[in-house]
Amino acid sequence: MVVKGENSDKTLELFLKIGLDDRTARNTIANNKVTANLTAVIHEAALTNGCDRTIGNLLYTVATKFPANALVHRPTLLEYVVSSKIKTPAQLEAAFSFLSNVASENFRRNEFEEACGVGVEVSVEEITHTVNEIFEENRAVILERRYRTNVGELLGSVRKKHPWADPRIAKQLVDAKMYELLGERTAADDEKPSKKKEKKEKPAKNEAVVDATPAQPSEEELNPFSIFPAPEDNIKVHTEVFFSNGSVLRCCNMREMLDKHLKVTRGKVFTRFPPEPNGYLHIGHAKAMFIDFGLAKERGGCCYLRYDDTNPEAEKKEYINHIEEIVQWMGWEPFKITYTSDYFQDLYELAVELIRRGHAYVDHQTPEEIKEYREKKMNSPWRDRPIAESLKLFDDMNRGLIEEGKATLRMKQDMQSDNFNMYDLIAYRVKFTPHPHAGDKWCIYPSYDYAHCIVDSLENITHSLCTLEFETRRASYYWLLHVLDLYQPYVWEYSRLNVTNTVMSKRKLNYIVTNKYVDGWDDPRLMTLAGLRRRGVTSTAINAFVRGIGITRSDCSMIRLDRLEYHIREELNKTAPRVLVVLHPLKVVITNLKSGSVMDLDAKKWPDAQADDTSAFYKVPFSNVIYIEHSDFRMKDSKDYYGLAPGKSVLLRYAFPIKCTDVVLADDNETVLEIRAEYDPSKKSKPKGVLHWVAEPFPGADPLKVEVRLFEKLFNSENPAELDNWLADLNLDSKVVIPTAYAVPALRNAAIGDTFQFERLGYFTVDKDSTAEKLVFNRTVTLKDTYGKNGK
User: Fold this and answer.
1) C-beta separation of 549 from 286 below 8 A
2) 81: Cβ–Cβ under 8 A, 6 or more apart, which residues?
3) Residue 161 a catalytic site member
4) Which reaction does it catalyse (predicted)?
């Protein structure tokens, strides 16, 4: 939110007082982060009444470039800036480098001053002598290039000899020396040098042109987890909490606290995947798993599967079992399975301590009153009640002596903060509801905002990773751990995974499931992981998709569904054997093949099947009655049509060419009932069109009948969640059932979960609704790839 109104005018006046030009000051105000930092720097430096422009520019640099891991030392640096002991950009950069290395540790001032050139004075005579030496060394080049000489390189040579010299004096002396050597600038000096095009040698005809420098993938592409710091670096300040009274909380671990943590973890990475057991996991959780489990695996660490079970009313054992099972299916192995409820006693005791320290109070406002007071930034009437009174009331809450809705425990944070998540968040509420895991021991339950960070700390999590909507909660997260003197994990947020033509909100998913718009949580049209698995999508493809997206903080991106489909095809193309299936059968009688005769032909399971590998082939019967797709026949032929038509030939895949000789029509003289054809046993004819087909396995017997379900996008719009009437956007044709498709006999023994490529049709998997009498197939994805053509 950009600073507006009266506050904006006051901030602009403050920035102008330190010597910023009007344009820079206004641009700064448009950036909330820089505005907050610069305002804090000016107050820390006690320069709210203004200063000269040189010091002001240094303050601006401090606000924008100061190392975050050393924020505790920023006031010290500002002392040096205000007193002009540090007065040049070079000294300031040296200070940043020094402080970045010491982080929040103490340091010796004499070492700091030596590193930053404090007290070092370089005279004009010394600079002049050095400039003369540099010009003498480069005289020939300067005379040749004249005013095209790179003055920056000359100044760099001066800085190398005198790093603490005044850069303005050095620039004046270099310019004067240039004039002394070259005289007045001429018109020729301002002419742009002509660029002569070098003739490229043509390679010999028999030589291949090879790109000698192919693009190398970045380190982050090779290892997306390289952006995360090591556990021993968790002494740096990652967050500043700005309070409305002007104070700033710089959250970091003290060395003693970090050493204690590292002793327990032995320096390993500890992460956690913390789903709430109130629904089925979706593809967004796949990204969270990839980051949480993936980071731990890449660093040789451990990842907890922790159920965030603080709301007993919404949680079910069904969801808990599903989550554990789907995590394993995704290929991840938890270090340990825990529940937030495992720590209910610890959380309660810490809440009592929070009250004792004056950072929490029992409140009697209704939810509506709390909402109203927070919107108006008003304190609760009970905010300043005596600590002893809150302790007594919180004990009453715990013993079940206070009704639901009559009291909550709230954290005493900052009701005037610019951050809504510092408005005295609720820590505990009364709920007379048994807990699925903890039973009926408790009648008060902690909130997410209270419990999440504390359990992270208790489990010694090194990296607490979550999606960007939790970024504004970071201040509350660190504030609570700070006031309780608990170890503070490294917090980092990444963008949510948003996929087109679906909804990812648990609330919306629960609505369409419970109201039967879809067939359960594992409906293949849903982006739940159970639905994707039932559709035939592999965990390998999902993880490849997530890895390809990367661990970004860009929260505006909507990932197209065809990008996921690209990774699905890439995987299934390698793993799904090919078979022949006809969805809409049209009967073809081959008149020159004896009725009752059946040939067993070899069909390839894989495109690159070797002739001597019998396992790469399966048998398909070929008889005088076969079936092709209705869509592969037309009464009128055309140049761009490769199907069958009267008088036209096509090749039957793995079999023979056939030529249409006659067509049997229904009484309406339009509907095609049957085709008569002749086959070419010699295979001398070479038609362009190739069709898939299925034959009668023996005289008078229908081919294997299977049910096929074709799935399309569940919603018509790319982002249905943003629509007011999102349910009206449901695609009514998202599921089409073909009850009687024909398949080759080789599919008869297919098992649930087996995946195949139906040639020319797509990839299909055996559904759990299959029975001994009839197989049911779900289409996973079509063969057509739009994403691969448009770029990966």
Assistant:
1) no
2) 45, 55, 58, 59, 62, 87, 92
3) no
4) tRNA(Gln) + L-glutamine + ATP = L-glutaminyl-tRNA(Gln) + AMP + diphosphate
Question: Active-site residue among 17, 85, 171, 506?
Answer: 506
344, 438 Cβ separation under 8 angstroms:
yes
CA-closest candidate to residue 618, choices 748, 454, 428: 748
Choosing from 496, 547, 560, 713, the catalytic residue is 496
0.90 exceeded by pTM? no
Residue 516 among the catalytic residues: no
Measure the CA angle with vertex 152, ends 150 and 153; round to 5°.
75
Report the distance separating Cα 66 and Cα 89, nearest Å: 12
Q: Would residue 506 show up in a list of annotated catalytic residues for this protein?
A: yes
Cβ count within 10 A of residue 623: 20
Q: What is the DSSP string of 435-494?
A: BTTTBTS-SEEE-HHHHHHHHHHHTT-SEEEEEGGGGGGHHHHHHHHHHTT---PEEEEE
**SS3 sequence of 630-685:** HHHECCCCCCCCCCECCCCEEEECCCCEEEEEEEEECCCCCCEEEEEEEECCCCCC
Are 103 and 235 in contact by the 8 Å Cβ rule? The answer is yes
pLDDT of residue 565: 94
Per the domain annotation, does 475 fall within a domain?
no
How many structural domains are present in the chain?
3
Task: Write out the residue range of the structural domain in which residue 368 sits.
Answer: 341-452
What is the DSSP code (8-state) at residue 340?
G
Catalytic residue from among 114, 276, 674, 678: 276
Domain's final residue, options 452, 477, 497: 452
* pLDDT score recorded for residue 786: 57
- CA–CA dist 108, 79 (Å, integer): 15
pLDDT of residue 528: 96
Per-residue pLDDT of 463-510, as tens digits, reads 999 998 888 899 999 999 999 999 999 999 998 898 999 999 889 999
The per-residue pLDDT for 140 is: 86
Torsion of CA 165, 167, 168, 173, to 10 degrees: 70
**Pairwise CA distance, residues 112 & 114, whole Å:** 5
Indicate which CATH number applies to the domain containing 677.
Answer: 2.40.240.10
The residue written with tokens 């739940």 in the block is 528
pLDDT digits (tens, 9 = 90+) for 731-787: 999 999 999 999 999 999 999 999 999 999 999 999 999 999 999 999 999 998 655
Residues of the chain under the 70 pLDDT cut: 1-7, 190-222, 555-557, 785-792
